[in-house]
Amino acid sequence: MRIEKLHIYGYGKLENVEMDLSLLTVLYGENEAGKSTIRSFMKSILFGFPTRGQRRYEPKEGGKYGGAMTVMTEQHGILKIERLPKTAAGEVTVYFEDGKTAGEEVLQIVLSGMNESLFDSVFSFDMHGLQNIHHIGEAEIGNYLFSASAVGSDALLQLDKKLEKEMEQRFKPNGRKPEINALLQEIKKLQEKLGAWQGKISTYEKVMGQLKESEGRLTHIRNEKEMAERRKQDYEVLATLQPLVIEKRAYETALGEQKNPFPVRGVERYETIKAKLEPLLVQLDSIQKRMGMVQSEVDSIEVEEELLQKDSYVEELLMQHMSYENARQEMRDITVSIGNMKEEIEELEQQIGTTFEKESVLSFDTSLAAKEMITQTVQKARELDKRKEQLDERFKMAQEQLEEQEENVGHIRKQMLADEEREKLVEQEKSFHGAGFIGTGSKYEEKMKYAQEKKKRWQKVCLLVLLINTGILLTSVFLDNRALLFTSVIFFVLIVLALVLYKDTSSNGLQEELLSLKQSAGGRKNEEALSIRYQLEKDEEMRKLFERESYKLQQIERVYDKVVSAYEEWEQGTFHVGEQVDTYKERYSFPSFYTYAHVLPAFERMEKMQQLYREVGKLAERKGILYEMISQFEHKLKNVMKNTEFDHLHMIRDRIQKEKEKRQKKEQLLGKLADWKEEREVLQHQVKQITQERDALLEMAAATDEEMFLEAGKRAEKREEAEKQVERLSPQVDMLEKRLTSLSLVEHYQVEGYEENLNQEVLHIRDFLSEEKKLTERIAEYRVEIANLEEGSTYGDLLHEWEMKKSHVREQVKKWAAYATAKMVLTKTKQYYHEVQLPRILQKAEEYFVYLTGEKYSKIFSPSEAETFIVERSDGIRFYSHELSQATAEQLYLSLRFALARTFEHDYPFIIDDSFVHFDAIRTERTIQLIKEITKDRQVIFFTCHAHLLSFFTEKQTIKLSRERKENKV
Q1: Which tops the pLDDT comparison, 234 or 595?
Q2: Which of 331, 292, 543, 264 is nearest to 422 (CA)?
């Protein structure tokens, strides 16, 4: 997939912005130019607008929200994806080339399962992310890369931890609180109760059978007794009264002898207390032994609390260690920079030719106004030099023209007739005048006159052009325009030559014709007259030419005088500039031999020296701050390492970790002791309560031990039996006494026996009563035993509760097994990824890393569980990742990112945001070359605010963003 065009309707501060993107596009802009807005826009079109909890980039001043993106796909060709805010995440419309439209389902097909989290994790990144890669071991980096390539970011890592947590919430091998552990403990207790019931069940059934049998027998005996009593009704009053009274008196005598009290159901209660007390004493003894063993183990664990108190300081120092190393490196760099600057200052002083004090240099005025004044002075001096050269050329030219014109005027003066000779020729011409000669030549003289007027008109035109050219010539001299001056001089010479060389052929022909005529008509005198006339006319022409050349000579002399005046002005300007140069030399302490050409370069070097001194001052201040920070760190480190045998911060950290583990173990053991102590106190309280109940029974029975208590119990049983018999006999005796009307039992009681039948019946009844008594006692004993067996829940209730607990455990075990199975599948998948995919990724990352570092590093080794990432330098020396510089570590991260992206089947575009700010120039160039190589397979969109990076890209690859709010021109 390749993004070809963005059309932002309204997003953040960008409105109605369009931009075309190529395979490699660099979006350059200063802060707040809209780079982050464009990144968010691209993700919003592909994956939906941000939710309400995130920044949505809605236009602040209203307007249409959303936009469109044109992409090239292999399956569908060119598509236009438009997203508008009809829902929270926005409604998507996909436009095909043939005019058809579709919705979200086609976009998901185009993205091929890509989501925003995965896109941000792999293809859209900056300098953060895996910067802490040197803290990650093999398992962790493998898990991270597997998770990032599968679903994005660390989602699978979080899933793994969640599965582990769910499993631990349900079951731990040695846990107590997890649900399955708690249920198993409850089931164990129920099994103990059921086991006890299994021992009681046979006894219970046997006793129940005996009880039913005894109750049937008792019913039969009572029926037989009733029949015997009916038979003895006639004689029972007297016959029965005697044995009843004797028996009653016998029991009353026994009751009188046994006066000691005994608790109700004392023996039964004592046996119950004894049955409860014995298992409690066994549990208490077991807990005491376990507490003794754990207490011994606790006593054997010695924790160095003083070392643990340094934990926070050690962690703080470890966090500050990287800053400390950076500060030391920065301090070394500053020291080197200060040295280089001082050397540069010395070199500048050597170039200037003298030395300066720092205070003097800083006190010099190097403002823009001062520099501008010096620049103007130097410029003026250069103009004066140039002016001098021009004046020399003009002077030479004017001198040559003057000499040439003077020579020309002298030559014309030599051709002119002397005044006396001219007057003499005029007189001779007058003497030769005659009517015939004159009449004959009048016609020719008129023609001669017309020819001369024509020549005069030509001379006037030439003089007018000559005057105009002279004006142009003077103007070019004042304007110092050498081209115009040269053209004017050439034109001036041509006009002069035209005046000098002009000949009127018609005039010459007329003269020859007139001369011939005069020779034929007048003879010798006419020929002499014509000759004089010709000489006079020629002299007239030479005099007029002399006037013209004399006027030209005057003009040239004026030009010459102006050149001389310009020399004087130049000398004044040169003197003024010299004074200004001397002032600057004195103000800035420049050498005395300096000319104006030295002043400006020396001023610029002075300006550079001033800047270097200021930078040295700033670096010195920064060096002081770094020194203070380093001193504080080393002081803290010294305090932490004091009174310890360690010589490295990581060693003391490892020792503290071990002490923490010992303290944690000790706390766990103390927790067990506390739990057992609480359980022991509960048992002791129960034992105390039961012992108090037992002692109360012994005290009530006036017994000191178990044997005495049991003996007293037997006596109590006998007394109880006697009381029952007395209670039984008393009503009978009372009833018989009531039936005696005339005699009382006390007065007429006799010991003699009665008839044989009465005695037999009485014996039968006595036997029945004896058997009834035994059965009654046996039934009571059976009922007491059954009550003891049925104490608490019944066997059925326990069995039902046990089955319910087992069912609940099965359900929890099924859930635990489901989580365990999911975790096992995830673990095997990660194991396959670690063994197969991870080496491939690291191999490709190694190729990228070797190229980025200029083959300074040759290999990348995957970390083990006990070590961090290791890289091998070309000389064979290996370094842990935390030993690398920040830039090299970031290049390692960048290599891993590029390698990870190659594992994806689809060519999603890279979006990189200023990830090279810490790279040097060489590695930056290599990184950009690598990016250009990657663009052969996939699109790269690079955001940056650093202008120096633009030199690596063409103008077609660069889009520049401005800070304008609405009309952002790209």
Answers
A1: 595
A2: 543
Cα–Cα distances (Å) from 734 to 217, 425, 728, 730, 758, in that order, read: 30, 225, 11, 6, 20
Tokens of 4: 């070809």
**Residue 793 contacts by C-beta under 8 Å, 6 or more apart in sequence?**
193, 801
pLDDT, tens digit (0-9, with 9 covering 90-100), for 526-557: 677 778 888 888 888 888 888 888 888 888 88
Residue-level length of the chain: 970
CA separation for the pair 468, 369 (Å, rounded): 46
DSSP assignment, residue 836?
A: I
Do the beta carbons of residue 160 and residue 826 sit within 8 Å? Answer: yes
Report which of 642, 9, 354, 663 is spatially closest to residue 345, judged by C-alpha positions: 354
Query: What residues contact residue 959 under an 8 Å CB cut-off, 6+ apart?
Result: 19, 25, 26, 27, 28, 970
Across the chain, how many H-helices and E-strands are there? Answer: 26, 14
Confidence of residue 516 (pLDDT cuts 50, 70, 90): low
Instruction: Assign 748 to helix, strand or coil.
Output: helix
For tokens 């070809």, the residue is: 4
Alpha helices by DSSP H, 353-434: 358-363, 368-415, 419-431
CA atoms within 13 Å, Cβ hemisphere of 619: 19
The answer to whether 129 touches 893, Cβ cutoff 8 Å, is yes
* Single-letter amino acid, residue 140: E
- Contact assessment for residue 313 and residue 636, using Cβ atoms and an 8 Å cutoff: yes
Q: Residue 478 class from Cβ within 10 Å (0-12 exposed, 13-18 middle, 19+ buried)?
A: exposed
Distance CA 873, CA 883 (A): 12
196 token code pair: 């006890």
How confident is the model over 665-723, as pLDDT tens digits?
A: 888 888 888 888 888 888 888 888 888 888 888 788 777 887 887 877 777 777 777 77
CB within 8 A of 168, min separation 6: which ones? 175, 178
d(CA 210, CA 758): 35
Per DSSP (E only), the strands in 85-179 are: 91-95, 101-102, 124-125
Question: Look-up: residue for tokens 């020929």?
Answer: 527
Strand order in the sheet with 870-873: 857-861, 870-873, 878-880
| DSSP-H helix ranges across 258-367 | 266-300, 305-308, 311-352, 358-363
Closest among 305, 308, 318 to 649, alpha carbons compared: 318
CA separation for the pair 467, 895 (Å, rounded): 84
Q: Alpha helices of 48-126 — where are they, by DSSP H?
A: 104-111, 116-122
The answer to whether the CB of 942 falls within 8 A of the CB of 934 is no
Do 228 and 765 form a contact (C-beta atoms < 8 A)? yes
What span, in angstroms and rounded, lies between the C-alpha atoms of 228 and 236?
11
End-to-end CA distance of the chain: 23
pLDDT band at 233 (very low <50, low <70, confident <90, very high): low
> CA-CA distance, 33 to 13, in Å (whole number)?
9
DSSP H helical ranges for 833-920: 838-852, 886-901
Q: What are phi and psi of 417, to 5 degrees?
A: -75, 150
What pLDDT was estimated at residue 345?
87
Q: pLDDT at residue 61 above 90? A: no
Contact yes or no for 101/36 (Cβ under 8 A)? no
